[in-house]
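=== RUN LOG ===
request id: a7f3
mode: sequence -> structure
chains: 1
length: 208
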Amino acid sequence: MSYFLAALVAPVLGALLYRTLHGRNRAVRLVDGFVYVAVPVLVAIQVLPEVIEERAPSLLLFVAAGAFLPTTFELASRSLARHTDDLAIVVTLLGLVVHEALEGAALAPVGGPIEPAFAAAVILHRIPVGLILWWLVRPRHGIPMASAAVGSLVLATLAGGLLASRIALPADATGLHLFEAFVAGTLLHVVFHQGRHDHTHHDPDHIH
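=== RESULT ===
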């Protein structure tokens, strides 16, 4: 139960950490730099083991598609460019919700014992996920939407835990892995494209 509760709290701690650090002048660049490093690391941790274990280099193509398709749409149409990054954030959030629900099911206090190393890895990586999500949503849509985005991760985890006995990966989870790879690519896009723009020009929390 303690692992599950920690997993519920972890994304919220990430958001609070952002608020605490980003309110200090010297920490602004540290937070932004952390996000630019943490996102590629999280994507690599998520995707590369599947590429190696499943021998599925196609996952890398889906990461690339998630990263570059939004840019293609933006170049094709100015009207699309206004909404592409918001759509990419929605896709990213949807993918995170699915991922968090599966993790919630894995950490649910039912069934056999949970490996402490696995639980620690899951809990610790959820803290930067909460920070990154707040970092993305807050400058564009304000505190209420950022809170709702982080809250959706908590609710997804809770739902995964409550429905753990009914949640099971299909025998062939290739489709899920491809979807998660695409979502990882969209996360890279919004962080390095629109995220950089927002935090350079529009973030009201950014102190110059």
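=== NOTES ===
The two ends are 43 Å apart (CA to CA).
Confidence is low (pLDDT under 50) at residues 202-208.
=== END ===
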